[in-house]
Task: inverse folding
């Protein structure tokens, strides 16, 4: 990158590459992109475990160690991982605390090292990643960015995973404290940025930094591909796909209920692709409901992502009302890049509604309303011309708004300005 200063950047994130979904995927891709641009990038990161909630076999039992990954030096940090079919809020908190305490090994060396970083990026969740960057700024005067992928505490309370007891009040207070103390706060949608402002982040210190899609690798394809054929769906069938994490905040029971309402329509085939803490329960419930044309598949290899997304006629983006605008489903960016229409359970005024309804890329139905979801699937499934039109708009939206290079170049420019390395740019 000619004539552009190089930065020393530290990223702190529990989730990181080689995780292939959600926060771990985006943080790993950000680090790789910045390293490729010539910046020196280090990362304090946890063990790859999501969405299966099992540490990958090649990362088990290694303790604290350094790894070179895509031009990034990764300081791997061991931590607990919840086990069992369900993951409670308290189990998550214990995992995050164990990561934070283990990472002190690396921070003890970083705090007083002769070399200092130019900027630190703390990825939230978990909230605890903000603790040491705050101290590092106090000791070494290094600016830091709190990048919010998910307002985890708010979502947990709304979903009933936490009750507003002493611990939860403490978490709220800490979240507001770090949002006020961060040199800059960034988040992935305008509504999440507004939420950060409501919690104490100054509007002048808040950045909008959206998630992206690999629009060069994920492109519209012929839906009658090998992935579709493996599922037993013919060109005349309507294949409806949910691909993503399977956990409490998704609320996938509404999909099972809608599929049950449509079970007499032999044209519709359903597939749920992914892993997570709620999958075992959902599989058992699907069996009880007797859904012969609904299948569960494990998370697919990255190499098959474009083919998998292209195989579906309709994609689903399911989340509970309580999680609206506290999280932004990462699956949406790739759906749009693949040029496929989506149906989301979202209300007017949310980021999902803005992308799909206002952008003409899909349909939104009320969260938790299985009858409305079934009706939307029937309507879109029976109108091939509407699916094609919405798919074209989806791809156009991705090209205009989700290009990785464009988004990360803007983020890089802000980092340069924050570090005082580009006086001509604005922060």
Result:
């Amino acid at each position: 990158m000619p004539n552009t200063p190089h930065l020393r950047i530290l990223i702190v994130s529990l989730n990181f590459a080689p995780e292939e979904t959600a926060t771990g995927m985006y943080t790993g891709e950000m680090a790789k992109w910045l390293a490729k641009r010539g910046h020196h990038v280090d990362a304090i990161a946890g063990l790859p475990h999501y969405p299966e909630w099992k540490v990958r076999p090649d990362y088990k039992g290694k303790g604290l160690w350094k790894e070179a990954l895509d031009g990034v030096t990764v300081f791997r940090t061991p931590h607990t991982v919840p086990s069992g079919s369900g993951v409670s809020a308290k189990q998550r908190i214990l995992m995050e605390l164990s990561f934070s305490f283990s990472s002190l090994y690396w921070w003890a060396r970083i705090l007083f090292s002769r070399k200092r970083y130019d900027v630190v990026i703390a990825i939230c969740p978990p909230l605890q990643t903000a603790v040491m960057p705050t101290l590092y700024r106090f000791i070494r005067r290094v600016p830091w960015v709190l990048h919010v992928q998910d307002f985890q505490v708010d979502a947990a309370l709304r979903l009933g995973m936490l009750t507003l007891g002493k611990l939860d009040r403490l978490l709220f207070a800490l979240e507001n404290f770090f949002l006020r103390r961060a040199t800059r706060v960034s988040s992935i949608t305008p509504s999440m940025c507004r939420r950060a402002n409501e919690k104490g982040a100054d509007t002048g210190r808040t950045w909008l930094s959206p998630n992206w899609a690999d629009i060069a690798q994920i492109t519209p394809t012929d839906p009658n591909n090998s992935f579709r054929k493996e599922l037993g769906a013919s060109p005349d069938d309507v294949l409806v796909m949910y691909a993503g994490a399977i956990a409490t905040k998704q609320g996938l029971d509404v999909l099972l209920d809608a599929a049950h309402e449509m079970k007499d329509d032999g044209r519709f085939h359903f597939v749920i692709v992914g892993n997570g803490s709620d999958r075992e329960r959902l599989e058992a419930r699907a069996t009880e409901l007797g859904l012969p044309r609904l299948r569960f598949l494990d998370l697919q290899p990255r190499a098959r992502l474009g083919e998998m997304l292209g195989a579906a006629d309709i994609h689903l983006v399911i989340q509970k009302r309580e999680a609206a605008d506290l999280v932004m489903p990462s699956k949406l960016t790739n759906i749009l890049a693949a040029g496929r229409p989506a149906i989301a359970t979202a209300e007017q005024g949310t980021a999902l509604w803005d992308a799909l309804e206002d952008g003409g890329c899909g349909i939104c139905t009320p969260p938790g309303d299985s009858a409305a979801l079934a009706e939307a699937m029937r309507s879109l499934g029976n109108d091939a011309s509407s699916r094609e039109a919405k798919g074209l708009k989806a791809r156009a939206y991705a090209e205009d708004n989700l290009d990785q290079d464009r988004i990360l170049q803007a983020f890089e420019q802000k980092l340069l300005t924050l570090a005082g390395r580009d006086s001509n740019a604005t922060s």
Observations:
- The chain is about 40% helix and 15% strand.
- The chain has a mean pLDDT of 90.
- The longest strand covers residues 8-13.
- Residues 89-111 form the longest helix (23 residues).
